[in-house]
Design a protein that fits this description.
alpha+beta; three-stranded mixed beta sheet; 3 strands
Length: 204
């Protein structure tokens, strides 16, 4: 049996985790999102995009579509907090691997120059905190978070997942791997790795 890197991690109760989960629309239609990683998970693993008005039924009024809330840090947290840790049967949220204060959304272009004061491109940064500084699964966790976000978010989001400074002994190396699109795409061609990621995303 493989050695457990952190046999006694600190666990947060689900009741203590910040959340603003939305009830899925009964009229939503499954829609496969687009992105670098969209081809890595089977169609059946995708859920309707709760942030895209076009995923709603055509019969819904335009007024309802206008009421869709903008994506904020809490929405992002809700997307990734329930990802299962690859080592423990616990979620990344309960292990404090992902935390609401470590998620930031930055408009890439000046919002005031666009309709509705919304930048057409937004950079999403997620800092992850491994449970131990020598965690060998940090890259896998980062990939899981990135895949989940690539699945769920509209193309206007540029996802940047990295290790939080001072929380891992090889953070610089891991961040280079997570930030290199070609290396990420090559890693996701590994069947064994994809099996691990699918398992992690079953609970997301």
């Amino acid at each position: 049996m493989a050695e457990v890197l952190n046999a006694n991690p600190t666990i947060r109760s689900a009741a203590d985790l910040p959340s603003r989960r939305r009830e899925p629309s009964k009229k939503s239609k499954a829609q496969r999102p687009f992105g670098l990683l969209s081809s890595t998970i089977p169609d059946c693993a995708y859920t309707p995009d709760p942030f895209n008005p076009s995923s709603s039924s055509d019969s819904e009024s335009s007024e309802d579509e206008e009421e869709v809330e903008p994506i904020d840090e809490q929405e992002i947290y809700d997307l990734i907090a329930n990802i299962q840790d690859p080592e423990h049967p616990l979620t990344l949220g309960s292990l404090s691997v992902v935390n609401l204060p470590d998620i930031s959304l930055t408009p890439t272009l000046d919002p005031s120059k666009f309709p509705g004061n919304v930048s057409p491109i937004t950079t999403l940064t997620v800092l992850i905190t491994p449970t131990v500084t020598h965690c060998s699964l940090a890259t896998v966790i980062g990939l899981g978070v990135r895949v989940r976000l690539e699945q769920a978010l509209p193309p206007r989001f540029r996802v940047d997942v990295r290790i939080k400074e001072g929380t891992h002994s090889t953070a610089e190396q891991v961040n280079k791997q997570l930030g290199d699109k070609e290396r990420v795409a090559a890693a996701l061609e590994n069947g064994t790795l994809m099996g691990v990621l699918r398992k992690m995303l079953e609970t997301a």
